[in-house]
Amino acid sequence: MKRILLKNSLFFLLFITCNVFSQWRYPNAENIKKDVIITYEVVYEKTLTEKQKKSPNYNKKIVVVFNKDKLIEKRFTNIQNLEYFYVFDYNKEISFNCRSYGNDKVAIKSKFRKGSRTAVLLDGETENILGFPCQVYESIIKGEVKKTYTTKSFGLKYTKEFNTEGFLLKYSGISKYFGRYTVTAKNISYDKAPKSIYSIEGFTIRTKDEQKEYLAKRDEKRNKYRELAKNKVGEKSPKFSFRTIDGRKIKSKDLLGKVVVLNFWFTTCPPCKKEIPDLNRLKKEFEGKDVEFLAIALDEEYKIASFLKKTPFTYGIVDSGDWLKSKFDVTAYPSNIIIDKKGVIQFYKIGYKSDIAKSMSYQINKYLKH
Q1: pTM value?
Q2: Residue 350 belongs to domain spanning
């Protein structure tokens, strides 16, 4: 009886072990002793402009780091403070699609699932990449046949959207912004990476449905803010009086006869920081003309002073501007406002826009003539 129970227990244990390894890990995953770091080159079929390379959708390279339990895939762009990456937990069979931009950190959680892109294994065809034997698959991507190369040498299944076995070392894709591209593993190294590299501590974790609901509410709120901003145009500017951090006393009544440009911002706001170089150029464009440029910051002066050491902002800067934010009904950041010579609000835009400086330049010139 004991022998039968022992045999049944061993059979059950063997069944569970095989089941764990067969889906997302292979038995040789246990051979991974150090973290593995693979750098992938991303090559686009068409030549991209420098402007396109500054887009958040441009991938400069991809780095994948993994051990037997976790994997992180990180995309590198040319945008500072912007991070896109995936974290895969092979024990819980859960992945996290992560985006980090300044203080905005979100991870979308989903269960492991098979890739949706059909791939046909080419029997008898193999290739070596970085010294590892690869199986070769074919997929049709937007009407073209493309090959995908995977290896089982690492013991993990990493296939992205492809319905294949093994670990991707070379694959093709298509970007709706830049067209076709190929991703190829170019370098591999082994090291002991800190556990924090796989961490998503500090991220807001949502399911896909929760994210969809969040975005719908966010868009509703943004539309409400835009409508509010639109309704402010044509209103008389509220009166104000303050000192800039360099000691200049500013009164709204003294600005009549000038075009006044206001920017509402704070130091830890990524889109606010992103538009500052354009705003500096805008101010320089109107040097010597009847235009007053003022930046109303929410921060205290010491924080602003520290920020300006790394990021110059040439507007006249006002600290602790919560009370001014309330006067102008500012609800989102950055917000840019233009007041004409008669003290009437003529321009009120919220949020970052790549052409904000050009749009404001046109409006300033327009109201300088009136």
Answers
A1: 0.74
A2: 233-368
